[in-house]
Amino acid sequence: MSFRYIRVEACRGVGRYCFNRAPRNAVDWDMLEELTPAFETLRDRDDVKVIVIASMVERYFSSGADISAFAAVRDEQMVAWIDLTQRLAALIRDCPKPVLAAINGVAVGGGLEMTFHADLRFAASDARLGQPEINIGFIPPIAGTQGLVRLVGRSMAFRLLYEGTLIDATTAKEIGLVDFVVPPEKLADEVQAYGEMLAAKPANTLAAIRRCLIDGGATSFVEGAQIEREQAVSLAGHANFREGVSAFLEKREPEWT
Fold first, then answer.
1. Per the residue annotation, which of 58, 76, 113, 163 is the catalytic one?
2. Which candidate among 121, 135, 150, 163 keeps its CA 20 to 30 Å from the CA of 193?
3. How many CB atoms lie within 10 A of CB 59?
4. 59 Cβ contact partners less than 8 Å away, ≥ 6 residues apart
5. With a cut of 70, which residues of the chain have pLDDT below it?
6. What is the reported pLDDT for 188?
7. Secondary structure (3-state) at 51
8. How many whole angstroms separate alpha carbon 56 and alpha carbon 66?
9. To 10 degrees, the CA torsion angle through 79, 109, 112, 117?
10. Closest Cα partner for 62 from 158, 134, 160, 132?
C-alpha cells in the first residue's frame, strides 16, 4: 500500500515511517488521514521487527499542523482532528514492536508529539525542538501533554508548554526529551544500526518489555507489578524462553522464533 505523504519502507527488519510533505512536513487533513493506516502497514508486516519514525524532508522533521487547515475549522471538525490524532498516539503506544524516532531539523507540534510515544528518540545535533501550540491558543492534542510530562517531568513540561519556545538537541537530551544526540550526517545510520540490533532479539520479549514499561508505567506500582507478572508467565511458556536457556547453557547463539 502506498501513501502520498508518508514513505513506508523496510530494510533488514527495520521499517521506516517517514513524513514526506515538503517543504516542512506540515500536517494537513490529507496527511493526517494517512498517518494511522501508514503506521498500521508497518505494524502488520512480518518482515518489520522495529519501526522508526523519521522524515524525508531536509531541515524539517515536522513543523506540526498546517495552521491554514484550522482557519475554517468548526467544533465538530476539531473533534474529528483530535480523535484521529489520539487514535494515532494509542496505536503507537499499543504497538507490539519497538518504536524509535530519528529527529532532524525543526521538530515542533504534532510531529514531535508522535515521538513522545516512541521508546527511544535520536536527534541530530542541529535539531530544534518545541511545543509552540500556546502561541495559537492551543495545546498538543496527540496525547502530547501526557507523553511530555512522562518524559521530562511536571515542572519541565509546564515550562515547555507555557513558554512555547524551541530548544536545541543538547538541551533536549539534558531534560530527557531525547535519548541520543548524533551528528546530522550519521542520524539515519545510527538509528538503523540500533534498530537492527533490536530486530535480532526475540520479538515476544520486546513486546513484553513494551507492555511492562508503557502500560505498567502508567499505573500504580502494584498494578504494574501485576502486568509484569502476567508478561513473565507468558514468556516462560514460550519456545523462545526454552531456546534462550538452552543456548546460554550450550554456549551458542539462540535461534528465535
1. 113
2. 150
3. 14
4. 104, 105, 106
5. none
6. 97
7. strand
8. 17
9. -30
10. 132
Q: Which of 9, 40, 76, 133 is catalytic?
A: 133
Return the pLDDT at 149: 97
pLDDT digits (tens, 9 = 90+) for 38-96: 999 999 999 999 999 999 999 999 999 998 888 877 888 989 999 999 999 999 999 99
Tell me whether residue 113 is one of the annotated catalytic residues. Answer: yes
Residue 199 cell numbers, joined: 530486530
Q: Residue 58 in 3-state DSSP? A: coil
Would residue 76 show up in a list of annotated catalytic residues for this protein? no
Does domain 6-199 sit in CATH 3.90.226.10?
yes
Percent helix, percent strand, percent coil in the chain, to nearest 5: 55, 20, 30
* The pTM of the whole model exceeds 0.70: yes
CA–CA separation, 163 and 171 (whole Å)? 15
